[in-house]
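Q: For a teaching session next week I want to show students how multiple molecules come together into a single three-dimensional assembly. I've collected the sequence lines for a complex. Could you give me the predicted structure tokens for the whole thing so I can convert them for display?
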Amino acid sequence: DIQMTQSPWSLSASVGDRVTITCRASQTISNYVNWYQQKPGKAPKLLIHAASTLESGVPSRFSGSGSGADFTLTINSLQPEDFATYFCQQTFYAPYTFGQGTKLEI
Amino acid sequence: EVQLVESGGGLVQPGGSLRLSCAASGFAFGRYWMHWVRQGPGKGLVWVSRVYSDESTTAYADSVRGRFTTSRDNAKNTLYLQMNSLRADDTAVYYCGRAPHDSAWHEIDHWGQGTLVTVSS
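A: Of course. Below is the structure for the complete assembly, covering every listed component.
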């Protein structure tokens, strides 16, 4: 199975900051990475698929990049509503494993 | 409006069985691949299974293969997860989600609200 190592596990930041979350796959997976945001008690929300394609309605301060085995999610100019937990997921082949998650805190 | 509503969760003893359902509405259910994802208390997301739009192909996480079965009834717009030989570490909120059939990235673009399964004696 493909392992997704996400870092950091937690991140403290302030409104207006720029933050980067990384995911490293245990093998090359082209651009088969999706990113999700989850707030406490809620279902996850899709932010980005295919490593860099922003979903409709997601603010442009979110961006994704990477190919091969290394991927990043960047959030520019953090807003209060961005404080949540973020997960990467590989869908190169099943089982479609998630990273451990990054909790973004104030 | 796209809606996915899970049901069937509850308390079950170790070794027991449970069947989860996910009722879909607001979209052409038969054209979407469907996934189950779970999340243990205070834990991260764990992908569980996937079924193609015509139920032709399923896939499972190693931890549930042989114990869980995913199926769907396109006429009833419903996804199922049959869970047998349940263990304490299956305790989690179980989410269903849809993925566009014409996307190679299996991105889950809509999720249900989840149903809690607790395995305990």
